[in-house]
Design goal:
- With 133 residues, this protein is mainly beta.
- The protein is built from no helices and eight strands.
- This is DUF3224 domain-containing protein.
- It comes from Plantactinospora siamensis.
Length: 133
């Protein structure tokens, strides 16, 4: 299994609440645009649905489309993930959606993890472990 450790740069983050509850909890939807900071990942976009508790911690689900060149092969793939924010660190786990990889990356499988704090901003660390087709 190959491994890529990278950081994506957050270019824009548009998060809007769509349901706010009397106890202070809320549901939001985020659209995020990222750029690559190395030769492997060119760009990425993701959408997230978040649930925030009154204390500011949250749980979320995401879909992220990544444009990349891995081992000399160019294409795109989609990660489906879930995560949590504990007030300090956002942690997420995701997997490559079967059948989502395109171009020379068609057939790619794998999983990714991310853990970031305010100190990482404007970057989002990402570790991808993958098997090329």
């Amino acid at each position: 299994m190959a491994k890529l450790d990278t950081k994506l740069k957050i270019e824009s983050w548009d998060e809007q609440p769509y349901r706010e509850l009397p106890d202070g909890s809320r549901f939001t939807r985020a659209e995020v645009t990222l750029s690559g900071t190395d030769d492997a990942v060119t760009a990425a976009t993701f959408e997230g649905l978040m649930f925030y508790r009154p204390d500011g911690t949250s749980s979320y689900a995401t879909l992220m489309r990544i444009e990349a060149t891995l081992d000399g092969r160019a294409g795109t793939f989609v990660l489906r993930g879930t995560g949590t924010y504990d007030g300090t660190t956002a942690r997420g786990d995701s997997e490559v959606v079967p059948g989502s990889a395109t171009g020379d990356l068609a057939g790619l499988t794998g999983a990714a993890t991310s853990a970031s704090t305010q100190a990482d901003y404007p970057h989002m660390p990402l570790t991808l472990e993958y098997e090329p087709a």
